[in-house]
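Chapter review: from sequence to fold.
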Amino acid sequence: MTRLDFDMARIVPLPTLGSPPRRRRSSRGRVLFLLILLGLALGAWWWRKRHQMFIAPPVATHTVPATAPPVAALTVAPPVPPDPLKLAGLRRVSVALDGALETSLVSSQGAELGKTLAQVVSRTLVWWVSMPGGLRRGDRIEVLFQERPNEEPLLYAVKLTKLGQTLRAYRFKPEGASFARSYLSTGEELELRLKGGPLDDYEQVTSLIRDGRKHKGVDFKTPVGSPVKAPFDGTITRKNWNFRGNGNSLEVSETGGEHRRALFLHLSELPRAQHVGGRVTRGQVIASSGNSGHSFAPHLHYQLMRGERLLDPFTSHETYRRALSAEHKSAFEAEMRRLEDLLSSPASAAAQLGPLSDNPRR
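The token string follows.
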């Protein structure tokens, strides 16, 4: 066999049985094809959403039949105006007495506030009626006050309606004055003052002989160190007796005249020059007010005696009322109108409390 024959024999395929086997497609190609289809679908979806963002939606039109009822206009409730009492930081109480004053106020305000408020209100009412017997069932009391933590309430206006008559008092502090005081609508002070009394000025009378408390003297609320003056010519007959109760104290016995004795209790200190047997003259400064002994706040206890009989300083001394000067009258009248508006405001029945100065608007 020649070489050519040998080579031809090599390339001739051998006979096979049946059809030749089919080649399997690669699984990788199939996965790639599916991923391409998925990508195209996601791209089409994104393009459609993006395109819709810039296309305004069609405006729906509705034809309203001629017989359709008119559409009711939307009404908005007007804003509720603020309570003027809340803005002023005050509260209002109005009670018709159905028994004792304290009972009525406790029923209205609770035990703690009601009892304290009754004591403070009584200091005003005592200048109009005897306490407590001067009040009767059906009398109406209206009070405008500020409630203060750890202090007694501060009154700004008090109205007493009794037998068809209304009595009013308003808190006011004239410019330049040391203290705010209660004034009648006429511009006169509510409280009487003593001519030749032991103090030239003070904040308030907190206890009277006739206030029903069975206290033996008049208590003047005044800062520690206020000058105390002798009400008449006399001699010092006692000094610092019963110190635990009276604190620093002096007794001056009148020389001649009505033979009265004046007692001054809870003084801050006594001048060394003051001694038993020493003489004093009317109007002479003999001591300074304080808070010594059995005392809960700075004040002066002033007591008058004749023998063993207790005298009321407000009947033993001449009395008078101070009136506002013309330059302060217009400011007082403006404040009086403001307080009257607060007493009569519709929202005042729901009055709330808050911090306040002596004069909320000044």
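Two observations follow directly from the output. The mean pLDDT is 85. The first strand starts at residue 91 and ends at 96.
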